[in-house]
Specification:
Layout: E1 2-3, E2 15-20, H1 25-34, E3 38-39, E4 42-49, H2 59-73, E5 78-81, E6 86-88, H3 90-95, E7 103-105, E8 109-113, E9 118-123, E10 129-132, H4 133-139, H5 152-162, E11 166-168, E12 175-178, H6 192-203
Parallel strand pairs: 2-4, 2-5, 7-11, 8-12
Antiparallel strand pairs: 1-4, 3-4, 5-10, 6-12, 8-9
């Protein structure tokens, strides 16, 4: 896990950008090549890893490890959690100037075929979130009991709203995601139904809300 040292771009505080890849290091390189050194006067500090524990890829645990690392650095007030296949417009970095304690931004994502420059589909706020580090810490990040892909992002945003954090859904393709066929691999399990059952159990009082103070460790 690495976090680049912040470079001096003026008085504005750095923004941590957390992203991970469970498969090819080339994906990480492509993301880093596309990420500017600074945006709207803020130095951008990438936080990334390709190492995971357990038998399968757990996006919630992987994200939490990166977010907690960013929180521990101290310099970054705003932490962006995203996907390695995402790319940002200048408008996104301007929009997140408004992020503060109790107010976060989760953009609508446009899935693009970059070879043809065509938007295949758009999806609601999910995998990219810009939030103040105090809110990430108060929520203990993502629910790590949700393993595999599916529902973990939406469950996190719902929990944030339940804790009175305003989540703004930004329009306008501020963030795009490279379209690719869905991966079929033991490292890419789809476990949406199982993860929804966890949310239902919490709502029914059969499980407690995620509040593990060792989140991300």
């Amino acid at each position: 896990m690495t976090m680049n040292q912040s470079r001096s771009y003026g008085a504005k505080t750095p923004i941590a950008v957390c992203f991970s890849s469970y498969s090819l290091p080339i994906e990480l390189k492509a993301f880093l090549d596309a990420l500017p050194g600074s945006a709207n006067g803020h130095p951008l500090s990438p936080v990334t890893s390709t190492k995971y524990s357990g038998d399968i890829f757990n996006p919630a645990r992987a994200a939490n490890a990166l977010i907690r690392e960013a929180c521990s650095q101290g310099a970054c007030d705003v932490i962006v959690k995203t996907d390695v296949d995402c790319r940002f417009t200048d408008a996104f970095w301007i929009a997140i100037e408004r992020v503060k304690e109790g107010f976060a931004i989760a953009p609508i994502i446009g899935f693009y075929d970059r070879n043809r420059n065509v938007c295949i589909r758009r999806t609601g706020p999910s995998g990219t979130v810009a939030m103040h580090k105090a809110d990430w810490m108060s929520l203990y990040g993502y629910d790590e009991r949700m393993s595999g892909h599916g529902h973990e992002d939406g469950a996190f945003l719902d929990r944030a709203r339940n804790h009175k954090i305003i989540i703004e859904r930004t329009e306008g393709n501020l963030v795009t995601h490279t379209w690719h066929p869905r991966r079929i691999s033991p490292w890419y399990p789809r476990r949406r139904k199982e993860n929804i059952r966890i949310t239902q159990a919490i709502e029914q009082g059969k499980m407690c809300e995620w509040n593990n103070q060792e989140w991300g460790l």
